[in-house]
Amino acid sequence: MHSTLHRRPNIVKLNKKIIEYGKRGQIEEAIRVFREITHPNTFTYNSMISSYAKNGRLKHARLLFDNMPNRNLVSWNTLLNGYIYNDRIECACELFERMPQRDHFTYALMITCYSRYGAIDKAMDIFYRLPDTTNVACWNAMITGFVKNGRLSEAKKLFDRMPVRNLVSWNSMLLGYTHNGEMEMGLKFFNEMGEKDVVSWNLLVGGFVEVGDLDSAREFFEKIPCPNAVSWVTMLSGYAHYGYISDARRVFEKMTGKNLVAWNAMLAAYVQNGHIDDACIFFNEMPERNAVSYTTMINGFVRIGKLDTANRLLDTMQCKNVCAQTAMISGYIQHNMIDEGRKIFDQMSSRDIACWNTMLAGYTQCGMMEKAFHLFQKMDQKSVVIWNTMIAGYAQVGKIEKALEMLENMKERNVVSWNSLISGCTRNGLYVDALKLFVSMEHDGKKPDQSTFSLVLSSCANLSLEYLGRQFHQAIMRNVVSWNSLIAGYALNGCGKEAVKLFQDMENDGYSFSSSWLIVCSRYRLHSSIALEYEDILLHLSSIKSKAMWIKQEFAR
């Protein structure tokens, strides 16, 4: 009897294997282990549901969930998280309403779900339904939702109202400033924090990297008490992003205890900067490789048109990963070999939402809407991203009515859905329709972004309605994102003086606006005569000398 028990596989170890295989994208291996377990427990089922969801197999995840003998709250939350992870908002909402019980994690998931797609009002509805109004995790999720949608003032008000704060609360608010380029406010808030961890430092360093202030990023990086792998990779990737590949390599060489993430970051640095030969050498020197390593190299070969080499590398993978296969499909599509891409797509044992969208986008970008629609119909469940791809495809070929039909059939729309259709109208000369759609978008509760403003301003200009273009934004709620969007919209349409005037209006409304000037400089580059005319404002905007020099260099290009 004792020997029989001794030989029985340890279910705890097998459950861990299912989770590990799922995380690595080796879903077939996870399925094999699951089938080997003769008496699976609830944790086994939950682990398999999670693995299915992580690999885009939501149909299998739901089938397993429906057939499992005993469910617990973790089972419900696992499937809910899977729907959110794969952008299946409608399914997530339906499941949430059916749940027999919920905990703080459930509510935090749904707040995050709505916030990710700009449905802040719905996120707030969930927040107000909290049975435990003191739960800090849900407050943190709501603050993060506000900051990721650029609504910093509302995030700060909520932060100030919190009954209990933890370090995550402080970091969520700090993320708001750094994520939106408000580094002066971010640094002030950082200095006010009583307790800081490595995440706090990483957010600050990452914020400076995002606005191109690498000197400040390096300064604070060197002050981190105990930098972790994320700290090093943030600095390395920052240098690589701005083309300082030798500095990136120096950071890599100084890094102690290099892990696979660091090796992959350095490999990506070479590929992103077009140093494919160096990337090949580095790839061969790597002590270990994973799917990310292979995917990065495949992307590198695709960039220089070596599709055969990329495909041979894909064939050497023992367990082909969805991301690597999707990269190969994308490569074929980029080089107008869509049929070759479809062959790989059809051979795949599993596909995630990104893979489906890559294939679908390939057809829509080529104007092959019949094939796109055929593929669209084959999908069991469709995410917002998939619907948006179809809208953009129909709009691109001038089938505005079909695009509108798609929009109307969506249960959950986001700002990209509306922008795709508005863009189609402007591209086809339907400027009045574009403005009408903008009004409908506002009624739908979606906040316009810089693309929306640019499209609307362009429509106004084409209709000789400049006065409307200068007045419509007064009715829009003013926050950092909407200010920056308007400024970018004016700059893109050559209205430099109007853009500069908005800076002054921002100051009157009490907003920090250095990031707004950086947006104009780095993305749209006002005409040099405008830059010279407002040189005093330029110098006033940047108290940090290195940032002022960077802005001047942008104008000089």
Automatic annotation (TrEMBL):
<feature type="repeat" description="PPR">
    <location>
        <begin position="414"/>
        <end position="448"/>
    </location>
</feature>
<feature type="repeat" description="PPR">
    <location>
        <begin position="135"/>
        <end position="169"/>
    </location>
</feature>
<protein>
    <recommendedName>
        <fullName>Pentacotripeptide-repeat region of PRORP domain-containing protein</fullName>
    </recommendedName>
</protein>
<dbReference type="InterPro" id="IPR002885">
    <property type="entry name" value="PPR_rpt"/>
</dbReference>
<dbReference type="Pfam" id="PF13041">
    <property type="entry name" value="PPR_2"/>
</dbReference>
<feature type="repeat" description="PPR">
    <location>
        <begin position="41"/>
        <end position="75"/>
    </location>
</feature>
<feature type="repeat" description="PPR">
    <location>
        <begin position="228"/>
        <end position="258"/>
    </location>
</feature>
<dbReference type="InterPro" id="IPR011990">
    <property type="entry name" value="TPR-like_helical_dom_sf"/>
</dbReference>
<dbReference type="Pfam" id="PF12854">
    <property type="entry name" value="PPR_1"/>
</dbReference>
<dbReference type="Pfam" id="PF01535">
    <property type="entry name" value="PPR"/>
</dbReference>
<keyword id="KW-0677">Repeat</keyword>
<comment type="similarity">
    <text>Belongs to the PPR family. P subfamily.</text>
</comment>
<dbReference type="InterPro" id="IPR050667">
    <property type="entry name" value="PPR-containing_protein"/>
</dbReference>
<feature type="repeat" description="PPR">
    <location>
        <begin position="259"/>
        <end position="293"/>
    </location>
</feature>
<feature type="repeat" description="PPR">
    <location>
        <begin position="479"/>
        <end position="513"/>
    </location>
</feature>
<feature type="repeat" description="PPR">
    <location>
        <begin position="103"/>
        <end position="133"/>
    </location>
</feature>
<feature type="repeat" description="PPR">
    <location>
        <begin position="352"/>
        <end position="386"/>
    </location>
</feature>
